[in-house]
Amino acid sequence: MIITAPVPSLGPTRTVRLGIRRIAFELRQYFRAGDQVFFTFLFPTLMYVLFATIFTGDIGEGPSAVSMATYYLPGLIAGGILLSGLQGPALEIATEKSDGTLKRLGGTPISPATYFLGKTGQVFVTAILQIALLMAVAAGVYGAALPTDAAAWLRFAWIFVLGLIACTLLGIALSSVPSSGKTASAVVIPVVLLIQFVSGVYIAFAALPEWLQNAAGILPVKWIAQGMRSVFLPDDFKNAEAAGSWQLGMIVLMLALWIVIGLVLSRVTFRWIRRDG
């Protein structure tokens, strides 16, 4: 009988250090996958170019009127956060679980904490680059108006961080649903598209049927998109929201709630190998 020595555990300092080093590895893997770069990283910008080219003119009246290029920007930013935070990790982890990558990592001193530090770091770096590219195209090519005061940018920052954390944790949990890496896209992408359409990313949330607004009103992307509209659109546009206001306090509460839900679900569902592995 062969007796194998237990894998030594890592201390917190080394865990964090290895996790930070793993971010660079995850970024290299991410940008080497051409399909992922197109459908996750570039997709929000490509969709924005499509919408800003097709829909022109202004929306609103008087001094509160904004161009359609500005109007569609906050929704596409929310969609980008969803793609980077939920779709990306869900597809990556499901594939790595299926092809044995996670099983091999499970036999090394690397801990799940180190692995997810790398994943989360990669998500934040790519999301920042993705949104920066989107806003650069919006402002530079289509003349979209960006915030000019520090308070608006501060609001943008906390909505971005809370929303991305919530989506990332939910993406980790969603990665356990596909039965294999081959079926991951068929499971994850339709879910992401459906969430985008009912959360006010492509269609004004107020234009949805009331029953659909009630059903989609609990989704985190709805609150991310609403928060981003409060950053990029004049204050008069809050009257078009379902509650007639931006509900900034409710945005914090809902995103915090989804962070807790995502943390619980990801902790319960994550395994180094599939349950049938």
The residue-averaged pLDDT reads: 87
- Overall structural class, as computed from helix and strand content, comes to mainly alpha
3D shape? globular
Number of helical segments with 4 or more residues? 10
Helical percentage: over 70%
What quaternary form is this? Answer: single chain
Rounded to the nearest angstrom, the radius of gyration is 20 Å
- The domain tally reads 1
User: What is the tally of beta strands?
Assistant: 2
Strand residues, percent: under 5%
**How is the biggest beta sheet arranged?**
2 strands, antiparallel
Instruction: State the order of secondary-structure elements, H for helix, E for strand.
Output: HHEEHHHHHHHH
